[in-house]
Amino acid sequence: MANAPQLRPLGQTLGTEALGIDLSKPFDDSTADWVRRAFAEHPVLVFRDQDLGAAELAAFGRKFGIPRMHALIKYRHADCPEVSWLTNVEADGKVDWYGVKRATDWHTDSTYEDELPLLAILHAKEVPSAKGGTMFADMRAAYDALPEERKELLQGLTALHGRSIGPAGEKLYGDNKGVTEKEYRDVRWPAVTRHPVTGRPLLFINPMHTYGFDGMAQEDAWPLIEELAEHATQDRFVYYHQWRAGDVLMWDERATMHRGAGDARPEERRIMLRTIVYPN
Ligand SMILES: [Fe+2]
After folding, report:
1. How much distance in Å is there from the Cα of 122 to the middle of ligand 1?
2. DSSP string, 175-241
3. Structural domains in the chain?
């Protein structure tokens, strides 16, 4: 590479800028490898000053796996359904209140599906004048910092996941969970998993979709999920990304949890493109 890209930390634990890459230009295999290697160690990676259409965003996603359509039909991009809109604006220009509230508590995307996503990518098009960030929690560091007896307990546990029916999902959405094409049944994932490249253990519980554990009563599971979510989202594990228009941010769907900060003024436009990428 003529000018090798560079990394610059943004947050204490997570958040890293990748400098020197223009995502609108087709990039060669060595650049793609560089991004893959950087991403394995830096699970929230930010490319500034980009200007991509939906198809280009999907093409970038395809460097890492297979972008897939999202469960919520309403927000799919008309020309490129594996990309969807994250927006607080309705077609008629009014505030979309579901869009304002959407995903503003801690979660990992789509853990209620039969297959787990690898990563997701957001591209900011219009951002509020202040706040309106996205927050990320480091589930590697969160696991490492657990007390030994919690690690032992979790190693043997399989978690139950359903669409927005965990403690945070019920609190945020209640009976208004948005319209999807299919009905979701439970899926099960180990409470602790490993990073596919680095092998680091990851706490794989999120309070939006995790609602129980195999063989554990609900009254014991619910507080455990809440305890783990609280542990993982302490300030020391969290990075708040303040968006600039043009940012492309990719995050690891297993090594992190995320949420919209939900702290912007709802009448200010906040519009992004997003794609979720699955393993090949
Ligand atoms: Fe999300």
Report:
1. 10
2. T----BSS----EEEESEEE-TTT--EEE---TTTEEEETT--HHHHHHHHHHHHHHHTSGGGEEEE
3. 8-280 (3.60.130.10)
